[in-house]
Predict the structure of Molybdopterin-dependent oxidoreductase.
Amino acid sequence: MKRRNLLVGLGAGLVAGCSKVGQSEPMQTLFDWSERLHNGAHRALGRKALAREYAPEDISPFFRGNGTIEPDGGAYAAHAAAGFADWRLAVGGLVRRELALSLDQLMVLPQRTQITRHDCVEGWSAIGQWTGPQLSTVLQMADLQPEARYIVFRCADRLNGAEYYESIDLEDAFHPQTIIAHRLNGEPLPVRNGAPLRMRIERQLGYKHAKYLTGIEAVASLEGIGRGEGGYWEDRGYQWYAGI
Ligand SMILES: Nc1nc2c(c(=O)[nH]1)N[C@H]1C(S)=C(S)[C@@H](COP(=O)(O)O)O[C@H]1N2
Ligand SMILES: [Mo]
């Protein structure tokens, strides 16, 4: 409980600090902390930089959906009809504390709101405002084991018969703009954009931003997951590191 209060306190400080783009004390503290926790991981200084954030007037009038725009099957439709009241985000793998978080539980965590540009390799971009807790907050609640090197995202949809999934390293996982978004432009996520939860990983290309998020898994290796390349599109030839 003590530890949790500390985390929530840190997160609240971080959110407050974020209005002053990027160099606030709490943010530095969080980075120092995550570095001490995961000092085995590679981290280049440049990757800590924030992606550009935009002004409200820059927001695209329509944020298109791409890839899956509505997961097949009765289970998702039933969740949607119930307003996603029973949706759970499972957090597991190499953690000391497994979690199953409801949307309400995610919404009471400190929130970050950011207006960013999404770039899809298919040649389109859109600017949107995203809100949700930072992934780092949830990972700290779950308490990563030292062997954890990657975070894998599980999704409710399939593309061409295969499960959509993605993965990032701990550098991106603890980046302040990596959030579990539940709102787009101040409204609950539309189904086409990944309702009820989707990742925003702002230093990465569009296909890394897993939609219809059902699970977060800490792993030591990407072997044995999908075809082993770290994501649905990576398994089909795209780069695993899609940094922008
Ligand atoms: N679960 C899931 N996540 C996904 C996809 C998908 O098909 N399924 N498509 C990806 C691609 S290629 C892009 S560009 C973005 C599109 O996000 P949008 O639908 O909100 O525009 O989601 C990414 N995340
Ligand atoms: Mo994309």
